[in-house]
Amino acid sequence: MIGAEAIVKCLEKENTEVIFGYSGVAIDPFWNKILDSDIKTVLIRTEQNAAHCASGYARISGKVGVCAVTSGPGATNLITGIATAYADSIPMIAITGQVNSDMIGSDVFQEADITGAVESFVKYSYLIRDVNDIPKVFKEAFYIASTGRKGPVLIDIPFDIQNDEMTEKFAYPETISMRSYKPTVKGNTVQIKKVIKEVEKAKRPIICVGGGVHLSGATQELIKFAELNDVPVVSTMMGIGAMPSDHPLFFGMVGNNGKAYANRAMNESDLLLMVGARVADRAVNRPDLITENKVMVHIDVDPAEIGKNVGPTIPLVGDIKHIFAEFLAQDDHADDHKEWIETLRSYKEQMMTLRAPAAEGFVDPEAFIRALSKAMDDDAIYVADVGQNQIWSCAYHIVKNGRFLTSGGMGTMGYSIPAALGGKIAAPKRQVVAVIGDGAFQMSMMELATMRQYGVKVKIVVMNNGYLGMVREHQHNVYNDNYSMVKLEGDPDLSLISAAYGMEYYKVDGNTDMEKALDDFLKDDSSELMEVMVDPMALTR
Fold first, then answer.
1. CA 250, CA 348: separation in Å to the nearest integer?
2. Element (H, E) at 14
3. Is the four-CA dihedral 444, 23, 97, 456 of positive or negative sign?
4. Sign of torsion over alpha carbons 502, 503, 504, 507
5. CA angle, 392 as apex, 388 and 395 as ends, to 5°?
6. β-strands 65-69, 18-21: how paired?
7. Are strands 65-69 and 124-127 parallel, antiparallel or unpaired?
8. CA dist 215 → 18, 84, 90 (Å)
9. What Å distances lie between residue 299 and 109, 135, 205, 334, 384, CA to CA?
10. Which residue, among 223, 197, 299, has the nearest Cα to 233 in the 3D structure?
11. Would you say the pTM of this structure is higher than 0.85?
12. Of 88, 94, 265, 450, which shows the fewest CB atoms inside 10 Å?
């Protein structure tokens, strides 16, 4: 067995079903041997999107996403996708080809020190020097990527190692034990009891959920705990969808771009449970305010996050699903916080902001996204890109029993189309809709060819305002409309782009026929593109 065969065998042992990637000579031995496997391969159109596809796949399937590219520019093109996955703690294995072992460090053709380049945004990286190490490396890599605070692991494999014959019999490790890596799963019993006592005492408790709830698969435990104890819930951007948007205990997204009443609820609480959230600046720009006159509990699987941005009263390290299961096992009585919840409902009514009606010939983003949400399937997957479309989506998309995906920590434009592609491959029977701005669309529209090649049916909504809207809005607010490098001129005709890729095209330029257009757009499982004309001067708030 040569190294390339061993890599394929390792992936089969990990039950890998699909790999997203791009070819090149330095990774060709691997691509050649995967032809003998049942693992599906998806040829994307630019390497960065291989990682975004793997991210979308991982987030929907609950498995580790896998991508593979060649050395040099192939590997460096992958970096933004890896960084995006790292920022949002998405489990991923990134395999890169490398030049021959004896040439590393010689600046030969298509050589790049990729392990060094990605050091700050991978959980771990490997450069394989011995073909016999392949089974052990892959076992460790999948374990690291999928446990603790999940994230990407990079494996760099020189061309000669892929072609070398193993001198030892292939044996994939049954178990893994790493002395330097032992993530905490079960929460400390004493700390758990302290939290339960605080919940029982609290008059104004609130739970703020982050992306860690999704990563742990703990949404049902969270909802059950909140309902049992009558505790309201708010979320960070990455936590959207942990509780259905119309649940009576859910009060929206917090942060700079969140709901004012959600921020007020968190500030006025006497007990704050921060669950699977980093307490980052986008969600909490004044950490001192959320710790004033309250007990703060921070629950996270990563001990490095606890106390990094704000000091909790009760730190609790462990896997959220395990911890909430323990809460439910020990907390056997229901609490009543009706007065507090009524107060929050009154805040919601008082602080709801009304948008000005859209100008003639344009669509109101709020009305459109609400109508889109209403028309989508209950278990649909909504993938928002980055920019104004993301803020409008966070504010107005109504999650039923589906998922909401976006690039939160890194804010990577062009994420939504490849992530939607990966999500659809993970769940082919579910409706998948990508919502993207006209700027980001031009960063990832090449993946329409990938969708066409593999018959992946994704609905794409392009919110077209002719600008890099979020930056234009910043320049409007900060530089008094002195715009620079934000106007998109020379944009392609999306009706012709749709035709070129065999997609049906819809255009909505007003609110009148919007609902009928959406019904037609979503009526069957086919790849279609809808262009939504938005006022160039529209603001997110």
1. 11
2. none
3. positive
4. negative
5. 140
6. parallel
7. unpaired
8. 20, 15, 8
9. 48, 34, 15, 22, 27
10. 223
11. yes
12. 450
What DSSP line would sit under 318-336, residue for residue?
A: S-HHHHHHHHHHH--S---
* Tokens coding 101: 């072992």
Structure tokens at 290: 């959320």
- The tokens describing 350, both together, are 């008082």
- Both tokens of 178, joined, read 């790493």
Token pair, residue 394, equals 């966070």
Both tokens of residue 44? 């994307």
CA distance between the termini of the chain? 60
One digit per residue, pLDDT tens: the chain, 541 residues? 999 999 999 999 999 999 999 999 999 999 999 999 999 999 999 999 999 999 999 999 999 999 999 999 999 999 999 999 999 999 999 999 999 999 999 999 999 999 999 999 999 999 999 999 999 999 999 999 999 999 999 999 999 999 999 999 999 999 998 988 999 899 999 999 999 999 999 999 999 999 999 999 999 999 999 999 999 999 999 999 999 999 999 999 998 888 999 999 999 999 999 999 987 666 666 666 667 788 999 999 999 998 888 888 999 999 999 999 999 998 777 778 999 999 999 999 998 876 777 788 899 999 999 999 999 999 999 999 999 999 999 999 999 999 999 999 999 999 999 999 999 999 999 999 999 999 999 999 999 999 999 999 999 999 999 999 999 999 999 999 999 999 999 999 999 999 999 999 999 998 788 999 999 999 999 999 999 999 999 998 7
**Burial, 91: exposed, middle or buried (Cβ in 10 Å; 0-12, 13-18, 19+)?**
buried
For 415, 427, 433, 516, the CA distances from 430, given in Å and listed in that order, are: 19, 6, 10, 21
Which has the closest alpha carbon to 197: 330, 339, 337? 330
Q: What angle do CA 316, 317, 319 make, to 5 degrees?
A: 115
Cβ–Cβ < 8 Å for 141, 93: yes
- Are 530 and 508 in contact by the 8 Å Cβ rule? The answer is yes
Separation CA 55–CA 53 (nearest Å): 5
Angstrom distance (rounded) from CA 136 to CA 383: 35
* Furthest C-alpha separation in the chain: 73
Q: Which one-letter amino acid corresponds to residue 462? A: V
Q: Which two tokens stand for residue 391?
A: 């803020």
Q: How far apart are CA 229 and CA 202, in angstroms?
A: 10
**How far, CA to CA in Å, does 312 sit from each of 199, 281, 298, 301?**
15, 16, 6, 15
Angle between the 320-330 and 219-229 helix axes, to the nearest 10 degrees?
Answer: 30
Q: Which two tokens stand for residue 238?
A: 């990455």
Give the integer Cα–Cα distance in Å for 410 and 224.
31
Closest CA to 436 of 494, 399, 383: 383
Which among 315, 285, 283, 280 is positioned nearest to 301, based on CA atoms?
315
Q: What share of the chain is helix, strand, coil (3-state, %, to 5)?
A: 40, 15, 40
